[in-house]
Design goal:
By secondary structure, the protein is of the alpha/beta class. The protein has one domain (2-223): 3-Layer(aba) Sandwich (Rossmann fold). It has helices spanning 44-51, 74-84, 100-110, 115-128, 144-156, 174-189, 201-204, and strands at 2-13, 16-28, 33-37, 59-64, 67-68, 85-89, 162-166, 193-197, 209-214, 217-223. The chain has a six-stranded mixed beta sheet with strand order 6-7-8-3-9-10, sandwiched between helices. A four-stranded antiparallel beta sheet has the order 2-1-4-5, covered by helices on one side. Bound molecules: adenosine-5'-triphosphate and magnesium ion.
């Protein structure tokens, strides 16, 4: 479903070059659950931004469902991003002047879904995520865990094939963090491909594929519930 080939991304600061991604290869099958771990600065967010078409590589190829998306222009990339990819960030990135319900509804408004179609979808998701009592609240009136649930609802309201989460529990206590991970795993169980960046080894261990990055490279991958190294 997803193939990255020899993906490179560098940043230049003064006369220093940082290889945030260094000839990175990766294949992800539909429905996979991957965690990405590694030290700060190892390239985890850069990898996620590439997968999410938020950023473009300097070189290399990115195939998404047999489409060479690394060659698309900005407008085409935005289309692919809106139709097929959902994002969840550590800091939620909700719009504070909108209610929880309006935040969740926004992607459907932006793609011109008519009100009579989008309302039931939004209400169903609000129910399912246990947000019924908070739907009219604005983000600052919600707990961190509730905000992240709203952010997840917004990310999946258009039923993307790929869900990318960059340290989604980074601002949460362990209890709400575990809830958020369980929700993401539930969505993965329904077939959505999930890539989760985390600093928490206990959370990372839960994924079917655990990637370990260092200096823009894949250092190690483990699969399944064993500790066997590939
Ligand atoms: N916009 C940018 N300009 C300059 N350098 C950048 C930029 N974005 C990332 N980098 C550099 O690229 C490298 C990889 O950064 P990245 O954010 O992907 O790391 P990370 O693994 O997500 O780290 P963290 O765990 O701290 O979030 C780092 O050395 C970082 O300083
Ligand atoms: Mg990061």
């Amino acid at each position: 479903m997803i193939r990255l080939e020899q993906l490179c991304k560098s940043y230049h600061l003064g006369n220093e070059t940082v290889h945030a991604l260094d000839r990175f290869d990766l294949t992800i099958e539909s429905g996979d659950y991957l965690s990405v771990m590694g030290p700060s600065g190892s390239g985890k967010s850069t990898l996620l931004n590439m997968l999410g078409l938020l950023d473009t590589p300097d070189s290399g190829q990115y195939w998404l469902e047999s489409e060479l998306v690394s060659e698309l222009d900005e407008e085409q990339r935005a289309r692919v991003r809106n139709e097929r990819i959902g994002f969840v960030f550590q800091a939620y990135h909700l719009i504070d002047r909108l209610t929880a319900r309006e935040n969740i509804e926004l992607p459907l408004i932006l793609n011109s879904t008519p009100p009579h179609e989008r309302r039931p979808q939004v209400e169903q998701l609000i129910d399912r995520l246990g947000l019924s009592h908070h739907a009219d609240h604005r983000p600052h009136q919600l707990s961190g865990g509730q905000r992240q649930r709203v952010a997840i609802a917004r990310a999946v309201i258009r039923r993307p094939a790929l869900l990318l989460a960059d340290e989604p529990t980074g601002n949460l206590d362990s209890h709400s963090g575990a809830d958020v991970i369980e929700l993401l795993e539930e969505l993965n169980g329904e077939g959505i491909t999930l890539v989760l960046v985390t600093h928490d080894p206990n959370m990372g261990e839960r994924a079917g594929r655990r990637l370990w990055m260092q200096d823009g490279c894949l250092r190690q991958e483990r699969r399944g519930s064993d500790n066997a190294q590939r």
